[in-house]
Design goal:
- The protein has 149 residues and is an alpha/beta fold.
- Helix content is 47%, strand content 21%.
């Protein structure tokens, strides 16, 4: 079974970080410059949350706030599911689905390791579906597919 560690190994080290006290406009500029849809929010080397395009649209625009006066910490997401490096990709898929989120935060022994996105999980699943899913799940899905088609 593929694990979170396998995904993290393929990703670049976390470089898309912003301080929780930064203004939203700074976050938007940084997201644009790194061409990502989220930023890892840190405060003195401690993980605080995620600031994403979705946070911007829902917590800034729709609430009538201003990007140049609102701080990241006021609008970021903090209720995110956590995983560890040893968790399986299949477990990540279940968490993403059950929590209706696009991001999982990776911690090992209370040390922040990175973020796994729904895209990371999908890429891993497609690249190595026989290693991601239990053989019994693949067999059951294949049998169901044969009955449907």
């Amino acid at each position: 079974m593929r694990t979170v560690a396998d995904i993290l190994h393929k990703k670049s080290p976390v470089f898309n970080q912003i301080d929780a006290d930064a203004k939203v406009i700074q976050g938007l500029q940084l997201m644009n410059s790194v061409n990502l849809s989220y930023l890892v929010v840190m405060k003195e080397d401690h993980f605080q949350g995620i600031f994403s395009e979705r946070d911007y649209s829902r917590n800034v625009i729709l609430k009538g706030l201003h990007s140049d006066t609102t701080h990241i910490k006021e609008v970021m997401s903090t209720s995110l599911p956590f995983v560890s490096s040893t968790d399986t990709v299949e477990h990540c898929m279940q968490l993403l689905n059950s929590h209706k989120t696009r991001y999982l935060v990776v911690f090992d022994d209370e040390v922040f390791r990175g973020v796994i996105t729904i895209n990371d999980v999908l890429r891993e699943a497609l690249a190595s579906k026989e290693l991601v899913f239990d053989e019994a799940v693949i067999k059951a899905t294949t049998e169901l597919q044969d009955k449907v088609f």
